[in-house]
User: Fold these one by one.
Assistant:
Number 1:
Amino acid sequence: MYQQIVILTGAGISAESGLRTFRDQDGLWEEHKIEEVATPEGYAKNPLLVEQFYNDRWQQFHQGDIQPNAGHLALAKLEQEFEGKLLVVTQNIDDLHERAGSKRLLHMHGQLSKGRCPRSRQTFLLKEPFGPNHTCTCCIPAQRLRPHVVWFGEMPIGLDIIQSALDTCDLFIAIGTSGTVYPAAGFVDTANHHGAKTVDVNLLPAERGSQFQYHYKGKASEVLPMLVEQILQGKMISGQVD
Ligand code: OAD
């Protein structure tokens, strides 16, 4: 039924794998100041504090019990079995989508597993948390790598690819995102504008004035396997499950 699907994921899809979201109760932004740990200005002022913030995330991601959940696995299955075009755009810097098997994936806010040369923008895979020895091999003198994450005030990655996928998709699904950070929060408007069906999956009920046509209230790990089966069976999404 559908030909082109764009999926946007946020911290909520990884919550059931044990990773903290940003804005829920006990979210990361309750404990850390955005301007200190997630802006270029914060990094210029105190790089060690910013590195520590991402190193803490690193330690958490590399605990043995952090695994992709049924939500990540359902999206990987959709990618494998869906015959049309599909792009998963994630705001998450964890690698749980990859570990579930997703390949047509774009990390619009960067990846924790990489450092970036501030001069050439070349990225380097990191095998361990950030430290003073993490320098690039592309410049002379070698530059200290910065986290390959998009901070507030910086341009997200791959916007041109995302934009053209949104322009032509016929189904847009947002999963586990509060829709507070732009430009990701505006993708639903673009998809609506181009006539796509727009669906939101969230633990919370639909917000008043939501731009989404359909809302599925529930855990990503429970809603997604059901939604993916529906798509693969060629059924139109038409229900509002609240
Ligand atoms: P938020 O923490 O803002 O929102 C998480 C959303 O997931 C909330 O709407 C929850 O209700 C929902 N949620 C929680 N558990 C869920 C579950 N099991 N199933 C379904 N939904 C669930 O996280 P994001 O929207 O991803 O950017 O945040 C967007 C950006 O803000 C992040 O990428 C990060 C942050 O600041 C940067 O740092 C640039």
Number 2:
Amino acid sequence: MSSPASSFPRLQSARLYGIVDLGYCTPAQVEAMTAALCEGGVDLLQLRAKKLTLPEIEKLARRMHPITRDHGVPLIINDHLEIAASIGSEGVHVGQDDEAVARARAAVGPGVFVGKSTHSLAQAVAAQAEAADYIGFGPLYATGTKPDYVPIGLQDITEVHQKVQLPIFCIGGVNAERLPEILTAGARRVVVVSAFLLAPDVQAYVRQIKSSLP
Ligand code: TZP
Ligand code: MG
């Protein structure tokens, strides 16, 4: 069964999820990017660094955490349970090829939320059965941030919200231009990566997306 909704009220109220992805910024830019995303109004923030070493990622996480904490934004570590546990992040995120949700939860402890990436309706339903605290659902569109994945389109968004009671964050190619059609398709929560990190004015772009969400 899924965790009770009241376990993590901040996940329930969250609408906008940002990711500091080291594919789009340098380690030296991480603090400024974190501050801009938080000040713009992200509700959750993830650290995702596919090409850095564990010590490098941990160092970045430790630099981000005071900033996210000051803004009351939960920090979520992608992939690395041991870093989440060691820095005391508020969340951890696992993919289909990572640890199962139960193992992730055992590694980070009961007060830390565990999110899972899903790429189909079936995977979303399975993540709920696995008791994830939230899911990412996508990629909706083809995206350079996750280039090897086939986009799933918008057609299953309504159904996934009927079948899965967890907070569902639609992800993959989300930007301001596409947001209206994504919301019309039934999305309530989104993750934005490259559109934020590449925006000329990150804070303003975050604010713009945030103001369009329900
Ligand atoms: N998982 C599914 S799509 C994706 C991830 C991490 C990347 C989303 O990035 P962008 O740049 O917002 O398309
Ligand atoms: Mg992963």
Number 3:
Amino acid sequence: MAKQFDVAVIGAGAAGMMCAAVAAQGGKRVVLLDHAEKLAEKIRISGGGRCNFTNVNAGPLNFLSENPHFCKSALSRYTPQDFLALVKKHRIAYHEKHKGQLFCDESAEQIIQMLKDECAAADVHWRMPCKVEAIAQAPDGAFLLSTDSGDVEAASVVVASGGLSIPKIGASDFAYRLAKQFDLRLVEPRPALVPLTFDDAGWAPFAPLSGIALEVEVTTGTLKGRNPGGARFREDLLFTHRGLSGPAILQISSFWQPGTPIVVNLLPEMDVAQTLIEGKGSIKKQLGNVLSQWLPVRLAEGLLAATGLAADARLADLPDAALRKLGLAINQWSLVPSGSEGYRKAEVTRGGIDTRELSQQTMMANKVPGLYFIGEAVDVTGWLGGYNFQWAWASGVAAGLAL
Ligand code: FDA
């Protein structure tokens, strides 16, 4: 005989634990199943081990989705302040880093413990490690879950099994397979918040710059018009052996379309060409020395090599056209990535269950009563900076209250 529950939540990550706790606190008999050996690894490794658990400024504009309106309802009904109230109730010390990002003072482990405690307070049942292999729906609408440790029957199922990023800690395509089974559309999944790579030959001159970090402005796509398809971020960039990383690149990677360029402004505070041309009369120094006042020395040398200018050339001796070319290389460095580091390194998966298939109030599939999708499995992807957890909490609460 299969064990019977009101609700089975598949995936005990951020969204799943939140949803299970809320549904159980509302009086439902809930079972939470996860195939991982270790609970909530993504929370544990998040924010460098301190979990950037929300962002005080989180709003619909910080999320990508084919339907940008979908996330509004859940986000407005469970706000960063609501999650913060929970964090305070559990006496977890936290601090704000830049741009509204909230982190634990001590450890991400505290957020996991908090969610476990919330589940325990409402008698959530656990099955872990337990892999859900298949789901079938009976004629009366109930769901039968086949797992590697026996069957489970539930009136409702919440799919909180996440996206494809970081397969080595349990990511699976389970949500997408289920969507296909129930004839729900999928927005093509893609790695997001991910370092970008370049072909070996093209990147060879920049590979020695690995380790250099600086604040830049990076853009991609079109920013103007009725349907802007691009984005602009001002954050730190990091050179790596294979390409570019750092918050600026992770942010822009979610918007980048393969085959198109990203444009990096390495000195966003300065019009480099104009400054150099105006300084020809008064700046007596050699070009290399001038640039290394503004940029890391190795980067200045690399840029001069790439533009064919000698580091020991005197500014006054250089034609304006050469300085304009150098200015462009610094203020509008345009480069076409060959790809990304993929799901192995991506913090999230862009795309997922098409939101047009779901109720924005409850997260239930419109054509499969009793089947819900929450968290990263859904086509709602946050920027870097605590937004993805806020979506996990908010969508988990929306479903949890509706069950
Ligand atoms: P999540 O992936 O957390 O959970 C899904 C669960 O489902 C997993 O536990 C998995 O084992 C289980 N599962 C999958 N298939 C199953 C099956 N068939 N049967 C049973 N169980 C199954 N975000 C943020 O806001 N702030 C931050 O600081 C960070 N930092 C960060 C760092 C790194 C390195 C990564 C990879 C990601 C982040 N993120 C982040 C993103 C954030 O971690 C992510 O968006 C949420 O964890 C998504 O929560 P979910 O609950 O939707 O999925």
